[in-house]
Amino acid sequence: MRILEPSCHPERSEGSPADDARCALRRGSLAALGTTGLFFAAALPAQAADIQGHAISYQITVEKPPAETKAEGQMSASLSKTCESWDYSSALLYSLGRTGARMESWQEGTKFSEKPDGRILQYEARYRVGARGEEARGTVVLGADGAGTLDVKSDKLPRKVDLPAGTLLPVALRAKLIDALSSSDPDTAGGPFALRTIELGRFYAAADVTVARAAALPALKPPAPRISSPLLRGRAWTLKQTSRALSDWMESTFELHESGVIARFTFRREGIVWRADVKELNAFATPKCGG
């Protein structure tokens, strides 16, 4: 008997969350066979990036929505530091519908605590389309070489995912990227950068990403609100992220500041390119921790 596997289209959401996860795992194993490039994370020195805790909300727009289609969205995120962990949370809500018809809504939410040494992460996440979806929680544990396990506790498809050497947790990845971009060595700072990380928004899987320098995002029309914040006064880079394993789902062009703030970015959902621009930004105090 032939067992049929689900069709795998990460940019779509017609499959069940369990099928989506199986697709992600299958894609990841195939993509790993063809991955090339140097994963620079292990070769970089200890983190020097001075990431600042902050709360941020975004204005969500679609520059060119499909004809007779209404698109709406909102997003907020926070990243705070304690002496024990980096704590992150985000919520993205967006809706699509034909003009005059009922709109369908999506919700993506992620919360995690990442240890300062980048070895352990505990998370909760949800992905919903209308009334259906998946909620998951679990732990990521990495060894000294970055290899480890992603534990996914879910009522849809509980599983353990092996993570290859060189895997970076989210805050550690952001810090390593800022370190590389800030390097006085033009060969290091110029990129592109090949990275291994994890995806916790929908697929709960290992993910390879390539980050390269890109042209600045064009100004919005009408312009986005002008934000005056010390967190946006340092150096900034516009970058494009792509992934072989998760294709459109992880494709993004984003503006990263040396404070760790991502001030604007694009993301692709349901075949549409959405854009998020900062509309409010507040800094958190940095804790003073004993040595």
UniProtKB/TrEMBL annotation:
Residues 8-20 have a biased composition (Basic and acidic residues). Residues 1-20 are annotated as: Disordered. InterPro entries: EipB-like. Pfam families: EipB_like (PF08904). This is DUF1849 family protein. It comes from Vineibacter terrae.
